[in-house]
Amino acid sequence: MHHIIGDQWSLNLLKRDLIALYNESATGIPAELPILILPYAGIAERERSNASMQRHLRQLEYWRKRLLGMPTLLELPFSKSRPSQQDYVGATHTVFLSGELTSNLRRLAARSHTSLYLLMLNVFATLVYRYTGQTDFCLGTPIAGRKHRDEENIIGLFVNMLPLRCTVDPSKSFDQLVTQIGTLTGKIGRAHV
């Protein structure tokens, strides 16, 4: 069995290329697939270059300072105790929001001058605070890692996890917390990702 490891961007590329090749097969008109300038292995090699390693070391130092003193454990209330050795076995629970609720959330995000994503991130941070009572914790969010134009047509995994340090001040309003998290992610996104 073969597995394709990729991100959502890659799945869209694969779908685009399969449709083009199917149309070529059905019509006889040659598919116009993009020419890859650099293979996936070439991108990995570029990432291991001296310049890239120096950038990586600067970013690593930034993250060490940013996450210094942050609690290492999120004290979520569990129905059973933590295992002595983590196995990373978990579950997925899918929740569907009604169209009306989604529209209301979009309006709230617009009123707060933020994106729906940041609004929902803030809702989740508030929920974590309510469950744990912790005012300082980290949430991880996936980010796209395609930094150069020559990576746009390559199928592969270009996703990294961005740690978002959340400091919740219970005396602040929900709107103030949304602004605070939005400011944090904006600064990180511009300067260090």
Identify the notable features of this structure and list them briefly.
single chain, 193 residues, mainly alpha, two-stranded antiparallel ribbon, 49% helix, disordered C terminus
Radius of gyration: 21 Å
How many alpha or pi helices? 6
Low-confidence blocks of residues: 188-193
How much strand content do the residues show? 5-15%
Mean pLDDT equals: 83
Strand order of the largest sheet: 1-2
- The general outline is extended
N- and C-termini, Cα separation: 35 Å
Can you characterise this structure?
The protein is mostly helical. The protein is built from 6 helices and 2 strands, in the order αααααββα. It has helices at residues 8-27, 40-47, 50-67, 99-111, 116-132, 174-192; strands at residues 136-144, 159-167. A two-stranded antiparallel sheet has the order 1-2. α5 (116-132) crosses α6. It starts with 7 loop residues before the first helix and ends with a helix. Mean pLDDT is 83; it is low at 188-193.
